[in-house]
């Protein structure tokens, strides 16, 4: 239970980590060290590995465990949360147990497509928690991906029934109003972290979210916005956010967005190779030039902004 | 409210009626008289017009009203329930009001695709009933078609909140266990009629259903099974059902099943032309021969059964 | 055929128009005049009325025709394209014929959910065009909404088979790469306009799109970006786009985004009342303050930008 | 390639095997021997293990391999085809390679939900076959389960492009007309086996299918119908089929049908324990009595039929 209490303290940037592959699509475990260092340098308080944008669905369970274990080894004392969602409960439970044995801080679970009605969702988590015991858990509310909608009142019931749920990752659009409602229904029984690639971050934080759980090729923006908002420097937070928004919105295009993100991160030295596992998009020369332009423009804006406004 | 009370009395066969078209796909309103006579001759206590297998989705609202009005004119004092489900509430309400003005006994509503969570479903019907007032209503529970699942506890809440719901058309598989649960939760506050083309009728009746609301090219089987079950002649009911089962299962193949049903009904003189509106299947010579064989075999079985068993 | 040729000339901003309602949800036809003037003042070359964000799905066919007719009356010689997509072909055709009779320039069609395989899609449009004849048509490629994916090679086959398709509204993500492929496959046989609330507009134009077909509460940004890009002033275009991006991304949140957009447009005098038809979101004080902040910040940025950069 | 040639010879009954569990949901590998014997006694020419009704989705990959290996050990020289469909390609490939190493005869693959357009489907199988090489493959065409529709012309392209596809398991409704079309398009390049719980078996065989690939608690009916049809004894085949049809249709109710099937098979001595893995239905006393009645009635009918008609 100590771990659940500790998970309930989480706030600030939790990066949804990429999974690095080699050109041939094999796992590149060594790059996980570089990648972790990159994230922590930019103030990640923890990582969520093997989320949707971590290409979890393309790995075998054995690979999932190897990746999680390597992130744990490179954790530098930070929280490692492992995405274990799966259409099958046995696979979810097996992976959850093994990554916890490897030293993970907790798991993230999104109910599988087709789990409808409040009744079925309660039953689903009942089966899960009977098996994974007191594993600290992030409940992922992401109907845009899973097709599963959970009302605020159901989320309250889940949180009250299953104390293992320490965090809700809220990405049901409009996330802003749902965060307002969840805060009203739940108080501070759980942390609320936000996803959707950080696309609504300043507003979500103003509504009471405890931090971003998202990926972006410039994680310093996500931690920076969080810090500025925490210190009450709302205008500076918005300015920082807006400077990066053109690229942020560009990375928020499903798998193709991930391809962009990995390429930018490769250029920044965070990983050796930007490739996605098949079936996934590959970038051509036109795409690369487009990214280059976007970053150049963003950097000019950023320098300009810094110079002019004294940030 | 008198109408809701009367709707709450409904039991026995309510045929989900076909909509007759001409060769060119135009409505054939005149055939509605012949068709109605055919259904009533075979002991229909009422009709559900413009259900899924009545091709409602292929008609304009004006056509829906014309079809419903004609069935009302030909009703011979029987109940005419009109399917008004629609992705849009305004269209649903407009059609509901107009068919009630034309003399319909009530409407049937299935919540539209994408209406998830107990909360949203309650809100949906709240909006609907605020507009259609005390229109007697059949709640259609048909997730196989709509993608919307409703738990027994939600159905109880809907029935308790909206007294207009006089009947539940139960076709969530396995319908048998859901009927058992609904009877336990609801008692006899509402009638339960069953769908799924009648494919589980004897078991559903034994579980407490009040009758079939289904289409079949031999409606005398549906009414016959209901009557036999009502009189406690369970074995005879099963025997009758099983004799027709090969064709019944054959008609339970979505739109192609409807094509088969209309063709058999045409051969039996119930309608002039068996055509479905586009896009819909058309039958070729191989299909026609297959149907012919199935009916011939069924009739031999039936005569044999009758002779040997003295039914 | 003259009309198809003319439709094939369309480029520049085509606003996806809102539909104005009164507080009680009734149509507010009079506001269509004000609204049209607002759009044309901001350089709309045409309007697409009754698109997804025009709440088409919540109107009856009669209401659709009334709305389209009023937009035509207020068109000031501009192109009025009417969204006629419907799960049912008869309704689609009836509305298409009537809005063309009212003077619309063309229709927009997105194939309905469930229409899968190249074969089915070809058959679907075959049935449609057999009935609507030479009505100039925008093919809407919007799998995020419809669930229907169309490959570039299928789109080419559709365009080659049905000369009525004068424009493709491309909003399959990543739209940028699909636009590149469509230009390669199609040349300039059709125009390509882009949607997704304009969220990727500068890149889409650079890839060869002919203009935005999107809604935004500041349509002057959409036309401005188009004009700047057309004149080769790419940097200025990006700067303009980026200034508005925080609000643009905020309006790109499905129905809630539409609620935001209508409220901002109400504040700008474009319409009397910002209400959406039920079931739709309503804004509360927190939401209103959030919008206010976002616009204030955007305007400061805009003035600042203008002053500093001499735009 | 020898194996592909051999797979292309398959005809007759291929049972979609159940997976036996203990009361606590653990795999019961020992029961696989009893179960295999039961299937072969009733004339199975091969088994398809870990299909949809084999609860594949509830097993971990390691469990899948253990189950497949045990079925191979108990195969008595019969063909063991292993269902390896998975949302993730790496998992599909890993399991496919391992079960082939364990001695399986081939694998069965259904493309995952969301794989739309002819282009994407060709690409999907291109990636798969680049990795599993010349593994003999059953292409499962089952849109009712997967949501993926494949037109006959696409299936022809797949078969012509990937010689590994030795069999099509055809269960897209109406399967009868699709079988007719596939035979016309493909000739005898591939075998066509049929699924849908065998619900349309006599008609499918008459249309040119090579046998059932289905589960049923009385597999002797499936092999019997196949044999009678092969010998041209169509009337006897139909009579046999129709006798079992009431139970057959009862087992064709998704997961609940599997619960029924396993219970009947347990009563027949085919396995120790009828339990399904969670989340799955459990049968109560009412359900058990209903099954009992159905079987009793079926057996009376069968004896009666045998006695009277001299079968």
TrEMBL record, chains A, B, C, D:
Alphabetized SUPFAM superfamilies for the sequence: Aldolase
The keyword Lyase is assigned to this record: yes
Organism domain of life: Bacteria
Keyword DNA-binding on entry: no
Record Gene3D superfamilies: Aldolase class I
This protein's UniProt keywords: Lyase
PANTHER family: 4-HYDROXY-2-OXOGLUTARATE ALDOLASE, MITOCHONDRIAL (PTHR12128:SF66), DIHYDRODIPICOLINATE SYNTHASE (PTHR12128)
Family listed: Belongs to the DapA family.
Name of the protein: Dihydrodipicolinate synthase family protein
Classification of source organism: Bacteria, Pseudomonadati, Pseudomonadota, Alphaproteobacteria, Hyphomicrobiales
């Amino acid at each position: 239970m100590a771990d659940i209490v500790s998970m309930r303290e989480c706030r600030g940037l939790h990066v949804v980590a990429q999974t690095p592959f080699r050109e041939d699509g094999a796992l590149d475990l060594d790059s996980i060290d570089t990648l972790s260092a990159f994230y922590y340098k930019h103030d990640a308080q923890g990582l969520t590995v093997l989320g949707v944008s971590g290409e979890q669905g393309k790995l075998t369970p054995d690979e999932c465990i190897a990746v999680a274990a390597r992130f744990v080894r490179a954790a530098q004392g930070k929280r490692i949360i492992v995405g274990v969602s799966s259409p099958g409960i046995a696979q979810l439970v097996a992976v959850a147990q093994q990554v916890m044995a490897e030293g993970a801080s907790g798991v993230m679970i999104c109910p599988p497509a087709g789990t409808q009605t409040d009744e079925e969702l309660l039953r689903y988590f009942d089966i899960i928690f009977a098996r994974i015991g007191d594993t600290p858990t992030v409940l992922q509310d992401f109907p845009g991906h899973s097709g599963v909608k959970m009302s605020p009142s159901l989320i309250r019931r889940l949180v009250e029934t299953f104390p293992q749920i320490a965090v809700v990752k809220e990405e049901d659009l409009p996330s802003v109003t749902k965060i307002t409602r969840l805060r009203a229904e739940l108080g501070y029984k759980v942390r609320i972290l936000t996803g959707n690639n950080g696309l609504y971050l300043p507003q979500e934080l103003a509504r009471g979210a405890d931090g971003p759980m998202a990926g972006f090729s410039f994680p310093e923006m996500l931690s920076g916005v969080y810090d500025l908002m925490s210190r009450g420097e709302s205008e500076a937070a918005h300015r920082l956010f807006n400077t990066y928004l053109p690229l942020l919105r560009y990375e928020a295009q499903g798998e193709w967005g991930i391809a962009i993100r990995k390429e930018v991160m490769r250029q920044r030295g965070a990983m050796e190779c930007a490739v996605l596992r098949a079936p996934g998009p590959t970038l051509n020369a036109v795409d690369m030039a487009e990214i280059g332009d976007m970053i150049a423009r963003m950097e000019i804006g950023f320098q300009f902004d810094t110079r002019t406004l004294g940030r």
